Amino acid sequence: MAYSYMPGFGNDFETETLPGSLPQGRNSPQRPAYGLYA
Chain centroid to CA 3: how far? Predict the structure, then answer.
């Protein structure tokens, strides 16, 4: 696996292993996907 830099200044980047595991449009959902803790 090759590592590379993500360009930008003051940007936010997010990655997810399982599709749909990150909340869309909100910060801390009441019931996160896959039983994760928020």
Answer: 18
pTM of structure:
0.46
Dist. CA 29–CA 7, nearest whole Å:
29
Task: Please give the DSSP secondary-structure letter assigned to residue 19.
Answer: T
Contact 23, 29 (CB under 8 A): yes
Instruction: Identify residue 16 by its one-letter amino acid code.
Output: E
The whole-angstrom separation of Cα 29 and Cα 38 is 7
Tens of pLDDT, residue by residue over 3-15, are 888 787 877 788 8
